[in-house]
Write a structure and sequence with these properties.
The protein is of the alpha/beta class. The protein has one domain: Vaccinia Virus protein VP39 (Rossmann fold, 3-Layer(aba) Sandwich), CATH 3.40.50.150. The protein is built from eleven helices and seven strands. The longest helix has 13 residues. The termini are far apart. Bound molecules: S-adenosylmethionine. The site of S-adenosylmethionine (SAM) has 16 residues, from loops.
């Protein structure tokens, strides 16, 4: 009998081929508990993974410490934001969405949290860019391509790669969401991030993800993994910035 965790692995695979072995599943970067949970907890039914108080405090801090210069380099590489369609994927309290809009882009805000959506909408009003930001229906990161059904000049994924259900699937989702000749930007903490300050459980899950591609919860990806996953697909160029020990930053052109 396969262990119970099989049930949460990609259901299409289970139906097509009943006896996949564990090693293949892990090597393929498939998910275990995460996918099952994502079928049960649905944002369209009012579920929000971000506690209300936390969202407001985090939003306050994010807006206070927001450094718009992070977008300068991207702006140079992609040749300006004016008139570009940008997807802010995992957009949270909306500081990047608003900044893209202020620089002339048409922005789609996408996230799973209804509280962040409210906060971001209020900020868009405050900065007078509500007409340049489309607030997409709430959804999981991994579902974004299926839900949005369109491609963008720039897909911007900042600080939330770890919340994907499956790293491998999510890298493909990001790639698919970028139009031909468009760009993708991913900034993520990696598995070194504050690892000694985290719980034993988080350290174990980080190790399992790093060594066996077994992702339970939200461990950060190991250094270089996100770039490698994107390089599974045809790209014209990929820039990576590994200057910070505990984070990876990549830009790619499709
Ligand atoms: C650390 S915040 C980053 C927000 C924003 N990108 C920024 O840099 O300020 C993580 C974001 O991921 C979102 N998130 C968490 N789990 C998610 C999921 N499964 N699907 C979609 N978004 C998710 C949260 O609601 C939150 O907005």
């Amino acid at each position: 009998m396969p262990p119970i965790v099989y049930l949460a692995v990609d259901h299409r695979m289970i139906f097509q081929a009943g006896n996949i072995n564990v090693f293949e599943i892990y090597q393929g970067g498939r998910i275990v508990l995460n996918e099952l949970l994502s079928l049960i907890y649905r944002p369209e039914k009012g579920w929000d993974p971000v506690p209300y108080e936390h969202a407001y405090q985090y939003a306050l801090a994010s807006w206070d410490t927001f450094d718009a210069s992070e977008l300068d380099e991207i702006e140079t590489i992609i040749g300006g934001f004016q008139g570009k369609h940008v997807l802010d994927l995992g957009a949270g309290s909306g500081q990047y969405s608003v900044e893209f809009a202020r620089r002339g882009a048409m922005v789609t805000w996408y996230d799973i949290s209804k509280t962040y959506k409210k906060i971001a909408e209020n900020k868009a009003k405050e900065f007078n860019v509500l007409d340049r930001i489309h607030f997409a229906p709430l959804g999981y990161l991994d579902e974004a391509y299926r839900k949005l059904q369109t491609c963008y000049d720039l897909v911007f994924n900042h600080g939330c790669f770890c919340y994907s259900v499956s790293e491998k699937n999510f890298a493909k989702v990001i790639y698919d969401l970028v139009r031909q000749n468009g760009f993708g930007y991913i900034y993520t903490n990696n598995s070194k991030f504050r690892i000694n300050e985290t719980s034993k459980s988080f350290q174990l899950r980080t190790w399992l993800n790093e060594k066996m591609w077994l992702k339970v919860g939200h461990p950060h990806p190991p250094r270089g993994r996100v770039a490698k996953l994107i390089l599974n697909y045809p790209v014209k160029r990929l820039w990576y910035n590994f200057q910070e020990l505990d984070s990876d930053r990549i830009i790619f052109e499709k």
